[in-house]
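Notes to self, Cyclophilin-like domain-containing protein:
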Amino acid sequence: MHMRILDTDDSQAWKGAWLATLMLLALSVSPLATAMDISSPPTGMENTTMWMTVGEQRFAISLEDNPATRELVARVPLNLDMTDLHNNEKYATLEQPLPTQEYSPGTIQTGDLLLYGSDTLVIFYKTFTSSYSYSRLGHIDNSTGLAEALGRKNVRVRFSAD
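result:
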């Protein structure tokens, strides 16, 4: 039996061939990953916008991607009788609690949609500072006319997917 030992030139040629093959493989898989969108995990939410209707006015709400918003979206359409508090927010107690991820925002912005505790949905129509903790649900995209639409009294608000 004859055994042939590769000389240095043959060994280098094989290394070069393997390197070229690996590079071609990497280049061919990269566009496939982009086309199939396997490079990033799914967010879990197909629609990141919810609608809020007050009387005849409609406001788009950009939602956070978290367990509370996913569960809230699963409950819409939802009609809530909301109570005014401190002339800067409307709130309503939900029938069932939502998951929480509380944080202290420091400054509440006009248009914030937050969850106080696990079952109180709050819409803010004025900007102010606060030491309270909330779970972020979303933010009204364009809050122009929000304070006027909500008024200073209790109001019925409809949340919907479309």
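- The two ends are 79 Å apart (CA to CA).
- The first strand starts at residue 49 and ends at 54.
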